[in-house]
Amino acid sequence: MTIGDRAGILAVGAFAIIAGAAEIVVGLTGNSLGILHHSMAPSFAAGLAGAFYCLGGASILTLRKWGAAVGMVFIGAEIAARLYLVATGLAASRSADFIKIMIGAAIALAIIAYVAACWKKFS
Q1: How many CB atoms lie within 10 A of CB 120?
Q2: pLDDT tens digits for range 70-96
């Protein structure tokens, strides 16, 4: 199998790293990128959610089955971290920001589903 056959996997892994890096910046600075409508207090927990996303993407980029499995676990942890942030009030539980948080979780869930669907492409 060539790299061209795995282009989608590479794109998903790279996206997870980029999105995770953005989450780390937003979490540790409280919205310096202007992604959220309302700024939030800087939070280690929010930064940790982004770190899970980055680690998930990096694991997926190994193109190995163990990396795919670890990557799906890390991205699942990122989704759980989002839910934790909302449940504890560190992130918005209402407003447009909540919708953005839930769309982000849905994208992360879609990444897990995509990686699982591509399982045979991993070596």
Answers
A1: 8
A2: 999 999 999 999 899 888 887 777 777
pLDDT digits 0-9 by tens, 20-36: 998 898 888 876 556 66
Quick check: helix, strand or coil at residue 11? helix
**Distance from the first to the final alpha carbon of the chain:** 9
Q: Which of 2, 5, 16 has its CA nearest to residue 67?
A: 16
Which amino acid is present at 116?
A: A
- The residue behind tokens 């560190």 is 90
- Domain-by-domain residue ranges, the chain? 3-121
| 61 DSSP 8-state letter | T
